[in-house]
Design a protein that fits this description.
- By secondary structure, the protein is an alpha/beta fold.
- The chain contains 14 helices and 20 strands.
- It has a nine-stranded mixed sheet with strand order 4-3-5-6-11-10-9-7-8, sandwiched between helices. Strands 14-13-12-15-16 form a five-stranded parallel sheet, sandwiched between helices. Strands 17, 18, 19 and 20 form a four-stranded mixed sheet that branches.
- α1 links the parallel β3 and β4.
- α6 packs across α11.
- The radius of gyration is 26 Å and the shape is globular.
- Bound molecules: xanthosine-5'-monophosphate (XMP).
- The site of xanthosine-5'-monophosphate has 15 residues, from loops.
């Protein structure tokens, strides 16, 4: 076994990753909407971390994971309610540094003998705190006497702190906004340091991981690259791997990483579903076959996909058909190259973090993204998912580390089902062609205006609605095209991009003049939530 490669750890039934990374922080999740942001901030400080639900960790599993410190997240419950969640009591006896955030602070206080009460004064959003003493958490950020902005979201407040703690920051509504027990390395903050609305929050978290937990911040993409290459080699052995390439940054990074790990045991398959954007197939084939010399099969499966989708209008049915047809194609291509044991996928960390459900039921599925849950059981290959622990921006950093051209690294995400989910209703060759033309004009205008990199994702949608227009002297009755452009940091939440009217006017003009079949264009200004980024 290569040096540094450890076993997969079973965390009470949850697969944790190995313990190869020397410094790790464990984030215990109590269900806050922003728990993932804690993980992002910790990793930005160069420290590897994982998020696990409060009810899936115990002393034994924590000992195996061997973290340098633990962060207790916020959550929607109130510790004053009888059946509200608790951290495993053992963690307070293990000598680990602990930072409780919001609900995490409340439960720590309660579990260590303090008292939490329901406050008459609920506090959400921006607030200011008075720093009443110095503390290692504040180094380089806050000093005694400062009045600092934070982002609060709480209904409870601490009435009595446990023995050994002292308040180091206070506010009108929360006399124990920040508490510290330096002797035992236990800290609690009532606000959310992980959100950008707490301006020095990232520094506070870095102080916890570096100064209090003693991490050096050695988790770099270079280290991750080596670690993953060793893991892939150990998992795959002498087996053969098929990797679906979509042209998106995730699958491109997977392909290049695997190629580095296992060379010609890898075959990439670019499946042309007939629902790709203009020029997509040529770009992908040129990069991987010509530039990287990676064995690449260009599978033209347009008729197969479009045949199966004929007359299908329900978005979930479309996704399921597409997911299962992908597997048919991969299976067929695997047979052609003499069989494959593994299928590589670009699954990312936000897709695998297990969500905390207080009702005990499954969390609601908004859409079945086929690269996570939608794979049919009948698939014969095992999965290789080297990006399972990364956030999107980390995948981009890994892509740069692997030397992928900047144009690929910065590419907007493109969903597996392709243009199928940008054509609400039935899919036909004609509609696909109209959509492709409009989409490429839109993206060309965005690039010309120098806006591509400022936008997370931009695309056109062709609506199954026709409207009346007038062109020249004639009446038209053609389709409506919607344009979407959003900013986002991870695709989980998003806001619309505020184009200026000149840009919109110019782009709409070009689409209507140059694309036969569209006579009206609208711009979608819905944020996520409540909308999603794609229309289906
Ligand atoms: P939504 O529409 O859920 O999309 O807000 C969030 C991000 O995920 C992409 N997306 C998909 N990616 N398979 C994928 O690989 C899918 O089925 C899928 N559906 C949405 C979407 O483009 C956005 O970046």
């Amino acid at each position: 076994m290569p040096l540094g490669y450890g076993p997969i750890i079973k965390f009470k039934g949850v697969n944790m990753t190995d313990n190869t990374t020397s410094e790790r922080i464990l984030i215990i999740d109590f269900g806050s909407q922003v728990t993932q942001l804690i993980a992002r901030r910790v990793r930005e400080s160069g420290v590897y971390c994982e998020v696990h639900p409060f009810n899936k960790v115990d002393r034994a599993s924590i000992e195996v994971f061997d973290p340098k410190g633990v962060i207790l997240s916020g959550g929607p419950a109130s510790v004053t309610e009888g059946d509200s969640p608790r951290a495993p009591q053992d963690i307070f006896e293990m000598g680990l540094p602990i930072l409780g955030i919001c609900y995490g602070e409340m439960t720590m206080v309660e579990q260590l003998g303090g008292k939490v009460i329901t406050s008459d004064f609920r506090e959400f959003g921006r607030a200011f705190v008075d720093v009443v003493d110095d503390c290692p958490l504040f180094d380089g950020a806050w000093a005694k006497g400062d009045n600092e902005q934070v982002w609060m979201s709480h209904g409870d407040r601490i009435d009595a702190i446990p023995k050994g703690f002292r308040p180091v920051a206070i506010s009108d509504s929360a006399p124990y906004t920040v508490i510290a027990n330096e002797e035992r390395n236990l800290y609690g903050v009532q606000f959310h340091p992980e959100v950008v609305h707490t301006p020095h929050g990232a520094q506070l978290l870095k102080n916890f991981t570096h100064k209090i937990c003693g991490c050096s911040g050695n988790w770099t993409m270079a280290a991750f690259r080596e670690q993953e290459i060793a893991k892939v080699r150990a998992q795959v052995g002498t087996g053969r791997v098929i990797c679906g390439l979509s042209g998106g940054v995730d699958s491109s990074v997977v392909a290049v990483l695997l190629h580095e790990a296992i060379g010609d045991q890898l075959t990439c398959v670019f499946v042309d579903t007939g629902m790709m954007r203009a020029g997509e197939a040529e770009e992908v084939v040129t990069l991987f076959r010509d530039h990287y010399n990676i064995s690449l099969v260009h599978s033209d499966a347009a008729d197969l996909f479009l045949g199966k989708l004929e007359g299908v209008t329900d978005p979930e049915t479309k996704r399921k058909i597409i997911g299962s047809t992908f597997i048919d194609v991969f299976d067929a291509e695997a047979k052609k190259v003499g069989g494959a044991d593994f299928l590589a996928q670009g699954t990312l960390y936000p897709d695998v973090i297990e969500s905390v459900s207080f009702t005990g039921g499954p969390s609601v599925t908004i859409k079945s993204h086929h690269n996570v849950g939608g794979l049919p059981d009948r698939m014969n290959m095992q999965l290789v998912e080297p990006l399972r622990e990364l956030f999107k921006d980390e995948v981009r950093a890994l892509g740069r580390e692997l030397g992928l051209p900047e144009a690929f690294v910065k590419r907007h995400p493109f969903p597996g089902p392709g243009l199928a989910i940008r054509l609400p209703g039935g899919i036909t060759h004609e509609k696909l062609e109209i959509l492709r033309k409009a989409d490429s004009i839109y993206l060309e205008e965005i690039r010309n205006a120098g806006l591509y990199d400022a936008i997370w994702q931009a695309f056109a949608v062709l609506l199954p609605v026709q409207t009346v227009g007038v062109m020249g002297d004639g009446r038209t009755y053609e389709f409506v095209c919607a344009l979407r452009a959003v900013t986002s940091s991870d695709g989980m939440t998003a806001d619309y991009y505020p184009f200026d009217h000149d840009f919109l006017g110019r782009t709409v003009n070009r689409i209507i003049n140059e694309v036969r079949g569209i006579n009206r264009v609208v711009y979608d200004i819905t944020s996520k939530p409540p909308g999603t980024i794609e229309w289906e």
